[in-house]
Amino acid sequence: MGRKFILILTCCLGAAAAIFNPLYAGAWAQQKGHFYTKLTYIYSDANRILGNSSPALFEDNALYFYGEYGLTNRTTLVLSTPFFKQSVNEANFLRGETSGYFSGDL
Question: pTM of the prediction?
Fold first, then answer.
């Protein structure tokens, strides 16, 4: 790219930044004592992606919990974790075992 193109591009981006008002986005805290909860169900089936010609069977059912609770007007406790998970995995290249005490976000 030439210097002239970079100079024009820089000027255009600078002008656009000066013309448009700034946008603010971000998380907000729950009010003290208020809460928000959500349950999400996810179903995965590898045969739908790979087609029925695949000799392997892979299915995954999971129910995830997400919750927020306002400790104060400026502090929110957030919990996001799988509530239930069931997998059927007969794919030879994916065999294995995993374990853990907690899988989520705090």
Answer: 0.51
